[in-house]
Amino acid sequence: MKEGRRLHPTAEPEERAYLVAVEVKGGNGRWQTESSLEELALLARTAGARVVGRAVQKLESPHPAHYIGKGKLTEIKAERGRSGYTLVIFDDELTPSQQRNLEDALKVKVLDRTALILDIFARRARTKEGRLQVDLAQAQYQWSHLERLEGRIGTRGPGETQLETDRRLVRAKIGRLQVQIEAVRRHRALYRRRRARTGVPVVALVGYTNAGKSTLMRALSGADVFVEDLLFATLDPLTRRLQLPGGHRVLLTDTVGFIQKLPTQLVAAFRATLEELSEADLLLHVVDITHPNAAEQAQTVEDILAELGLGRKPRLTALNKVDRLARTDGSPVRGLEDLAQFELSLSNYRPDAFFVSALQGWGLRELTEHMEETLFAEVRARRRAG
Ligand code: GDP
Ligand code: MG
Predict the structure, then answer these.
(1) pTM, to two decimals
(2) Ligand nearest to the CA of 206
(3) What is the pLDDT of residues 338-368, one digit of tens each?
(4) What DSSP line would sit under 26-74, residue for residue?
């Protein structure tokens, strides 16, 4: 059967992507349609495509057959001559029949947000475990699409229909992958128990994708960590030893970034990775404070953590990239002391938040001191006494 819809932009001439979003009446939740589309553009660029145009349609609800309305469809079709797109990406999950109908009408490849994210993950997974998890997510995506086709295509007649064959193959693949991932999971659990016995606390970096987790990891531990201005540059968790200012040792773990509308298959497939978070003694939430949607991003991370049952884990927040902020007179910030004005309003609502610049190494001393104080009782006591 056909493998998932994949982009191979490095092997082929550059894909030219046209982006489409529907704004349903009453809004799309926390995220503005425009910001979500902006993020979709970054996702498309991460997958190696060039964004050549975009369209938003306001609708009561998505059209069942084409997701967008007939008129908009005609408009987008006409756009092709002007922008020369080779691919249309929708900022939402399409049903299998919507996807098919759209490909028939537009005569180009049609992807949805989930397939795009899965494609990025597929090309970025480096370790065996990462690849297993991506394979499982893709198989589950295929499965959910095949499942929704059921009932629409007749299954009468002797022998197995193509749909039945596909379903059987995907089902078997999912089963196989689940067994392999279960083995990985047991191995990780064993490793975690051994680690726990050593008594070294674990600090896990969490945050929205591109917030600067890997950069902070590198700044703190000197580890050679992959850093890139792309979404999901890190797929596989990485753990490094770190010595705190008072001499205590901790283990620091870098994790995969979160994103809004994270496909449910991915959350499930990455459970083994995310389980690392549940074993952590402290979560260090990294926020790109300079991003126009910093608040929505931080809340999205909090929501996912709550979903994973980690809402009450001890945590510190690092408000990162402050070197990109400007002072009130518009001049660039040259150090943390320039941020006194921000600090005041900040402490009003987030007492556990610290300004840092992972890139410049600003604020790391204070941050690590607080890590130590949060994790080690005697440091806490000493601080209070002194
Ligand atoms: P991750 O996805 O959270 O791991 O983010 P990365 O560590 O890969 O960083 C994403 C991008 O943000 C990279 O281009 C980094 O160089 C940049 N970045 C990270 N921290 C800072 C910072 O403190 N200041 C500035 N200006 N850029 C940063
Ligand atoms: Mg990273």
Answers:
(1) 0.77
(2) 1
(3) 776 666 555 554 667 889 999 999 999 999 9
(4) T-STTS-HHHHHHHHHHHHHHTTPEEEEEEEEEESS-BTTTBS-HHHHH
